[in-house]
Amino acid sequence: MESRKGNTAPKKIAIQGYEGCFHQEAAQYYYGKQVEVIPCDSFRDVVKVASDKKISDGGIMAIENTIAGSILPNYNLLQKSKLKIVGEVYLLIRQNLMVSIGVPLEDIKEVHSHPMAIQQCFKFLDEYNWKLVETEDTALSARKLSKSKSPHVAVIASKLAAEIYDLELIAPNIHTLKNNYTRFLILNREEDVVDIPDANKASIYFHTDNSKGSLAKVLNKINEVDINLSKLQSFPIPGSDWKYSFHADMEFDSRDKFELALDLIRPLTEELRINGIYRKGKTI
């Protein structure tokens, strides 16, 4: 566990969603159970709050999922911000069915949750003749149930949501695909970033002149120094004629190799920026 526990006050971290959401689970894994989260309505708000040192110590933002793929708008938000990546968390998404305490399975008539969570649990849900109600957030559904205490409504949400809102977890791990991970980026303000001696991963942003073979030349140079390119995401450059920029995640066993790679590819790019140098996250 990559907890940042100590004698200092708990970190205040901006997250997207309500208390009990998967962003909060990721925050607790990285910073420890004592972390204070600042719920935000949107990822844009996460960036805004995380950038303000008066109200937060940084933020956490989902960036990709093994089922849904990359969250492209979040890459764009990252590029436009002055936040840096200082860590990452790969969180196994476990969907659970929960009810008000004492409600039996046979009394359920409706299941409320975010449409993605519902889709992830169709195999389980198809066994019952329940009305499926789509909502804006899994944790919000849990919060509403905790207030209404409806004897005929169940929600799909995280185990943390059940704990926070005092709900009974009546059917755990009801998701169909058991290998569903979301990658979360740990973000901090550039002026607050400290060097991580054992860093073995970096995220960079670059674009070339888009001439024939220009991207291949960059990738070849990265390969030459034995660096694993674990992610390459392209984006159209606004206002250009079909020109693209790239986000690349690079894994290495030596900081010197990474620095050498930068030296080799810098002359081949029109812009090169480091979004973060950090430790590779572990799946949990």
Describe the model.
The protein has 284 residues and is an alpha+beta fold. The protein has 3 domains: 12-93 and 180-191, 3-Layer(aba) Sandwich (D-Maltodextrin-Binding Protein, domain 2), CATH 3.40.190; 96-171, D-Maltodextrin-Binding Protein, domain 2; 201-278, ACT domain (Alpha-Beta Plaits). It is built from 9 helices and 15 strands. It has helices at 22-31, 43-50, 72-80, 115-119, 122-125, 138-148, 159-164, 214-224, 255-265; strands at residues 12-16, 36-40, 59-65, 69-70, 83-92, 96-99, 110-113, 131-134, 153-157, 168-171, 181-189, 201-207, 228-236, 244-251, 271-278. The protein has a 5-stranded mixed sheet. Strands 4-3-11-5 form a 4-stranded antiparallel sheet. Helix 8 (214-224) runs antiparallel to helix 9. The chain is elongated, with a radius of gyration of 21 Å.
- Domain count, please report it: 3
Tertiary shape: elongated
Mean pLDDT: 94
Structural class: alpha+beta
Q: So how many helices?
A: 9
Largest sheet: 5 strands, mixed
Numbering strands along the chain, what is their spatial order in the largest sheet? 8-7-9-6-10
In the CATH hierarchy, the third-tier topology of the largest domain is known as D-Maltodextrin-Binding Protein, domain 2
